[in-house]
Each structure stands twice: as structure tokens, then as C-alpha cells.
Specification:
mainly beta; hypothetical protein yedk fold; five-stranded antiparallel beta sheet; five-stranded mixed barrel; 13 strands
């Protein structure tokens, strides 16, 4: 599962990541939670190419009668998404990249769920694999997304049994390509190399979605923090 992540960076670094000018309002975020608006890069059209947009985190399938279903679809399992009715069409036609500086996972130890922050050792930005959908049964169209997850690498295995799919930078175009075949896409849905990531315990204040400050991605000593 991937239930929280951070985008602790500035607009210039994001422009360098995606090699494009960004005109959307942007600020660093340290505790991005489901149901919130998040940034995502997707293919727009052959004429326009790629575009950076904001989408609500929690995918609502186009056929759903109630948009509330999105709260249960913040993640999609990479192993089954290409076949599952909720995600099948999105996987074929509506893939995207979600920029991040790190993500959180929780490890249960001594009766307490300790949050960990996982990020690249070199502190560079990266992109999570996602899917998006447009729902038009409400008063206004709603565009939503989900994050794909896979099994853990050796670093994550002691912390959690799932991790988000991270798309290597050299594969961005391949992942966004609307003509990409299923075999090519499935080759990208694997655990990111453990040796390129670091993980450390952080404040349990991250449990509160209202908290959003740099202190949330600062290392703390395990189980020594007041509740």
C-alpha cells in the first residue's frame, strides 16, 4: 500500500524532472494524503504531448454510480490492474506519472505503528506509476487517480509487504506512450532497486493529514517519540 507521500521540492526541480515549463501553482508538500489534489504528468494528445495536471487521489471508475468509491481505490495492485474491471481501461489508455520526493510506510513494532520515510539516497525527485479516470455522472466532471503498487524490495520487506511502483526516468516516455503494449508495460511494474533507496523512522505526527511541515520527513529515534 502507498497511503502517504511527499513532494518536498521547488518548481525548478520539477521542471527539470519533466523537461517542461510548469504554470500550475506549486508549493512543497510533506504529507500528501488520499482524497487530496495531487500533481500528475500524463499524455494529452499527439499535438500537445504531455501535460501536468491536478487530480483527486482515489480513482473513481467511469462506470461507478457513486464517486465515494474513490476512497477505496487509492492504490491498484500492479499484478492485477491490467485485468481488474476497476482499472483495466485506465491501464490500457490512461497511465500517468506522479512526482514525489519520498513516500511513507508503517511498520508495526512493540504495539505501535512506526512511520518510515523512504526516499532516494541521492535525494532526487522520482515518479510513481499511476492511472487516471474521468467520471461524468455528477454535476461536474471529476478526474481522479490511483497509485500502482507491487511487492517490496529488500529494504521495504521488513517494513511493509507492498511498495509503490517507481518508474525509472529513462522509461517515462515508454510508460506514458498510449500505444505501448502490455508486455512492455508489465516489465516496468517491478520493485525499485533497494540499493538506491534509504528508509528511516519519522514522527508519528504524519498520521494526521492536517500536519504538513519539513519536520515530518526528519529522522527520529524509533519508539522514543511521545504519542
Amino acid at each position: 500500500m502507498c497511503g502517504r507521500f511527499a513532494l518536498a521540492t521547488d518548481k525548478k526541480a520539477l521542471e527539470m524532472l519533466y523537461e517542461m515549463e510548469i504554470r500550475l501553482d506549486f508549493r512543497p508538500r510533506y504529507n500528501i494524503a488520499p482524497s487530496q489534489e495531487i500533481l500528475a504528468l500524463r499524455f494529452s494528445s499527439p499535438e500537445s504531448g504531455k501535460e501536468l495536471v491536478t487530480l483527486k487521489w482515489g480513482l473513481v471508475p467511469f462506470w461507478a454510480d457513486d464517486a465515494g468509491i474513490g476512497s477505496r481505490m487509492i492504490n491498484a495492485r500492479a499484478e492485477t490492474a491490467p485485468q481488474k474491471p476497476s482499472f483495466r481501461q485506465s491501464f490500457k489508455k490512461r497511465r500517468l506519472l506522479i512526482p514525489a520526493s519520498g513516500f511513507f510506510e508503517w511498520k508495526k513494532q512493540n504495539g505501535v505503528k512506526q512511520p518510515y520515510y523512504i526516499c532516494p539516497k541521492k535525494k532526487q525527485l522520482f515518479s510513481l506509476a499511476g492511472l487516471w479516470e474521468r467520471w461524468e455522472k455528477g454535476e461536474m466532471p471529476l478526474e481522479t487517480c490511483t497509485i500502482l503498487t507491487t511487492g517490496p524490495n529488500d529494504l521495504l520487506a521488513p517494513i511493509h509487504n507492498r511498495m509503490p511502483v517507481i518508474i525509472p526516468r529513462h522509461s517515462y516516455e515508454k510508460w506514458l506512450d498510449p500505444a505501448a503494449d502490455i508486455t512492455t508495460l508489465e516489465e516496468l511494474l517491478k520493485p525499485y532497486p533497494a540499493e538506491e533507496l534509504s528508509a528511516f523512522p519519522v514522527s508519528r505526527q504524519v498520521n494526521n493529514p492536517a500536519q504538513d511541515s519539513p519536520e515530518l520527513i526528519t529522522p527520529v529515534e524509533e519508539n522514543r517519540e511521545p504519542g
